[in-house]
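Hi R.,

Here's the chain you asked about this morning:
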Amino acid sequence: MTTASTASQPVSLYGFLTPRPGHADELRKLLMDLVEPSRGHDGSLQYHLHEQEDGRFFLYEVWRSQEDLDRHNTTPLLRAFMDELPQHIEGAPEAYFGVMRSPYPAIVA
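And here is the predicted structure, written out as tokens:
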């Protein structure tokens, strides 16, 4: 949810992806191929991929603003990923969005 009062606050996106049987390696590669390019997108503050003991993948992203996340979501890289994703996951992604309410630490250059 974006409102005028939250538009310039950091937002987070996090969730789980469950690979289809036999697709874990392909899904891991697709997800890993997103990490460094996404970290380089304007407004990316955090972008992490975790693999759970149960085989699910956990993605955690923090963006400077909803506008930055929206811009990231329209990149050719992410659109191609989203097109290929359904063939590698079981069920729908379990995804959560939120406005970061705790202060984000200042980034020292």
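One quick note: Helices lie at 24-39, 66-73, 76-84.

Cheers,
M.
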